[in-house]
Amino acid sequence: MEPSPPVAERINTVRIVRGTPAVTPPSQAATEGIEAAIGRVLGGRYAIESVLALGGMGIVYRARHLAVGRPVAVKILRADLARNTEALARFHREAQAAAAIGHPHIIEVIDFGHSPEGDAYLVMELIEGIDLAGLLRREGRLPVARAFGIVRQVADALSAAHAKGIVHRDLKSENVMVLSRHDGDYAKVLDFGISKVIEDDQGRAPITLDGVVLGTPHYMAPEQGSDGALVDHRADLYALGCILFELLTGALPYDGKTPMEVMYKHHHAAIPRPSSRLTETCIPATVDALVVRLLAKSREDRYADARAVVDALDAALSPNLGVARWRSRVAVAAMIAFGSLVTAAAWRSSNHADPPPVVARGLAPVSPPLPAAPLPTVALREAAQTVLVAPVIDLPVLVPPTPARQPMVRRRQPRPGEATPEGLKASPYR
Known about the structure:
This protein is an alpha+beta fold. It is built from eight helices and 16 strands. The protein has two domains: 33-126, Phosphorylase Kinase, domain 1 (2-Layer Sandwich), CATH 3.30.200.20; 129-347, Orthogonal Bundle (Transferase(Phosphotransferase), domain 1).
């Protein structure tokens, strides 16, 4: 097996104002109190147990709901952002966006609130899994079928989000968790912290100002790196193409030392095909074409929506799936035919002189017949020198009984001079 290329170091989510990218890592003051939060009880319900992850906007802890004992994940907004109005609004928007979508492949938001100490926190379901970036570091690039299965689930989640007018804007391998289940990988999309609401039916003003760009450069669509106001649902499809390219090859489609260099390549560099990055592994042309269309520079050249991506993923693997189904059906039919031949041959052997019994569903079992007595024979003479001997079988005649009729009695008429017997006049028989 060909060794996978090393996973490139990623630049975290950046904020760009007037062309100047600024990575916002947590300050030292914000990280000093990480361990101090362990043991606290937020809102009187959630006991903090351990640290799970450190993100750009907050720290994620493992906690337990005291009332029901359910393990949960609690995300607490960084202390240096707690007084930032825009950060608070985004933190609240993350809770609203994930809760509004309500999709099985999107992380479930359970609660949102503020502690008496002034901490804003977000309570989510606890996912016992690994993100795609960690999966690539552990296992290397994935087979085509497995990569397609994961990306299909993410595309399904994006379709639900876009239907609600929500654009993720920061879709990347670190924001997709994978759980191992008995039926395979199960993906969960995380972190709607910088999501964009395109159609807000509650009349809320957008959080992002014109000219401000948010996102992760390695997954940014060309229009997303130019102006945040141009971003729509097709920017998520571009990021999905970057993830699919990464899963198939183990490397990002574009890389660079600075955010500006990476974004420049998204704008101007040729679109790479996954097969061009691998020398020994054969990637079908349909897979190359699908990835190239997702990574189109112009959003009009990409798929119309996430549902079209799901259909394209299914169609790309349908020939292989069809051959597998055909082989399975042929094997089953062959086994049935072979079993029928063996059964028929066994019943025709000397050990089974009688034909196999026929069992009718829903009928009572039939008791075995009694041994038959020798049948008498009758000789019939039809011609000279010819005698036919035929068995006489006593078969019951199923004839409905005929009601008995009274015999007709005709009485003698009295002679002249004789007295009429009593009751003769009343008799119907004259």
